[in-house]
Write a structure and sequence with these properties.
It is a single chain. This protein has about 260 residues and is an all-alpha fold. It has 2 domains: about 1-65; about 75-255, no CATH class. It is built from 11 helices and no strands. It has helices at about 5-35, 40-50, 55-60, 70, 80-90, 90-100, 110-135, 140-155, 165-185, 190-210, 220-240. Helix 1 (about 5-35) packs antiparallel against helix 2 and helix 5 (about 80-90) crosses helix 10. It is globular and about 60 Å long. The chain starts with a helix and ends in a 21-residue tail after the last helix. Keywords: Membrane, Transmembrane, Transmembrane helix.
């Protein structure tokens, strides 16, 4: 059995186990823990942690000698991730402060779920495992690695609307958002904390201010979000040039990685 065949067989099987475990047992685990702790927020975080077990086992089978924190990209600087994400999302924060009114009443458990918990676990599942593992440990290039994970990431956000046009907008925005988060994650030394905090701040500002009922947004909501994305891209390019680091993503490795790229 070739190494590539073994790798992809275990990877695909691991993802299938995770997918069906999450599909059939997540809600049951969530309900059980919620009854136990009387907290939807704690239940959400713990249920996500439990359904991550197939992913963690898959990574350890594939890379038994590697540290799980390294495999999950959690061994990087969280302070750097927090700082860069906060600075990068300032256009969103400032724009929303001046353009939108804050919501009248917060449900802090819902806020925790939609910001901290969702941002952290979605980045681990989609950016680190489903996309990052393929890019870091195979010859697959950027587009080859992100396609399935980003399509799935977009699909899981379609619950936000029943309107056909809005569904198309939500799918397109979340798909492109996945591509953007992945690019930042790859270019900044596979520091998943940057993607986690970008995800967190963007969700937080959307939740705290009366921007829109779903991610499709509106003119000003998306304008300020796009301004933040431009700023983050500028920051990433500046840091890469300052440290004289090679860019991970180039025209030469969109589908198959160049030997010059370090992963």
């Amino acid at each position: 059995m070739s190494k590539n065949f073994r790798f992809f067989s275990i990877f695909i099987l691991g993802f299938i186990l995770y997918y069906f475990f999450d599909l059939y047992y997540f809600k049951s685990i969530l309900s059980f823990i919620k009854e136990l702790f009387h907290s939807k927020a704690i239940a959400h975080a713990l249920a996500y942690s439990i359904t991550l077990v197939p992913i963690i086992l898959t990574l350890k089978i594939l890379f038994p000698k590697k540290n799980i924190l390294d495999l999950l990209s959690l061994n990087q600087s969280s302070i750097k991730g927090l700082t860069l994400a906060f600075i990068g999302t300032l256009p969103m924060l400032i724009g929303y402060i001046f353009h939108f009114k804050p919501v009248n009443k917060f449900n802090f458990e819902t806020l925790f779920i939609n910001t901290i918990s969702s941002a952290f676990f979605e980045e681990l599942i989609f950016r680190v495992f489903l996309i990052g593992t393929l890019y870091r440990f195979t010859r697959l290039g950027f587009l080859s690695s992100i396609l399935f994970g980003s399509l799935l990431f977009a699909q899981v956000h379609l619950y936000q609307s029943q309107n056909i046009i809005e569904l198309f907008e939500i799918f397109a925005i979340t798909f492109l958002g996945s591509v953007f988060f992945t690019w930042v994650y790859f270019e900044l030394d596979f520091n998943i904390w940057i993607a986690v905090f970008l995800h967190f701040f963007m969700n937080l500002y959307w939740e705290v201010f009366n921007v829109s009922e779903n991610v499709s947004g509106n003119l000003y909501g998306n304008l300020y979000k796009f301004s933040s994305i431009i700023l983050i891209i500028i920051i990433v390019i500046y840091l890469k040039k300052k440290t004289k680091s090679l860019f991970q993503i180039t025209w030469r490795n969109l589908f198959i990685k160049s030997s010059e790229v370090q992963s």
